[in-house]
Fold this protein.
Amino acid sequence: MNILADTFSRKINYLRISITDHCNLNCLYCVPFGGRVRVSHAEIFSYEEIVRVCEAAVLAGISKLRITGGEPLMRKGVVELCRMLSGIQGLESLTLTTNGVRLRELAPQLRDAGVQRVNVSLDTLRPERFRKITGYNLLSQVLTGISMAEEVGLHPVKINTVVMRGLNEDEIEDFARLTLEEPYHVRFIELMPFNGSSEHQSLFVPVEEMVKRVKRVGDLSLEPALESSGPARLCSLPGAKGKVGFIAPLSYHFCGSCNRLRLTADGKLRTCLFSEQEIDIKGPLRAGASTEELVDTYRLAAMRKPHGHHLNSTHVEKYFGRGMQAIGG
Ligand code: SAM
């Protein structure tokens, strides 16, 4: 197995692939301010192209793939894509990030196609708020999807909750209580400045405040750090079946241990979520690049990976060109 490393001796073994920029929800912090600019159909990577660049990624040293978007379960044939990806020799893990709307229907098929785990994004447990945040009345569908994912063994189901002032920070305790009864990993995430709106400062809730609120439910014990927990610091409440995690990209960035590259839906390798630097892999692929040349593109991307980002909770005004749904969150 080859090792892909960057110039700061970080091992790069994780690729997140956005397979579509289309989404069936309109989360108010994700949709770019001023509206979405959709990538044209011709620019979107076909499944055959995704498989080809993922095979090259694994040869370069990537061992973990995560499928994301947009909403990946909106793209037709996603189960078949998962089957093709999970069959790549040398791949150790295939996971997926979804809003959960189509999970009830697709969880069994995804598991059979080789997906090992899912992360589900859910920012509220209240139907009215769900509609306010996402634009749709689909909370019960998402909750059923989460149960189904757990039932079919896509375990542990990780619930990603972006905390926002005045929108859902008063639900932190409710989300934490969910882990008492259910084996989910609920991960509270700091809002990142992605959609170009100037409201970030007023919506931002620092991780310390999230921890304080969870402690109102019970004492927190720190769990050992696992590679599969990624940047989340995992804790548990007394007697809980699940875990609580905190992800603080602004208060305590985790660039020093960043092991990721991202592939955008239109075939660009992105070296850091917070950097606009992209390396075209679709162009060379469509021009007939050999597998070795594609492997070299990953090496180039790794070499260009920046040391870290310079944002913190008070310096966030930069707009990162594309919204999360285009980059692949
Ligand atoms: N549609 C899928 C989903 O909902 O999980 C995958 C794509 S979505 C862009 C991936 C994740 O990015 C979601 O968990 C979402 O909450 C997160 N996200 C989007 N914009 C964000 C922001 N400004 N700050 C923090 N997280 C954000």
About this structure: Residues 267 and 283 are 8 Å apart (CA to CA). The mean pLDDT is 92.
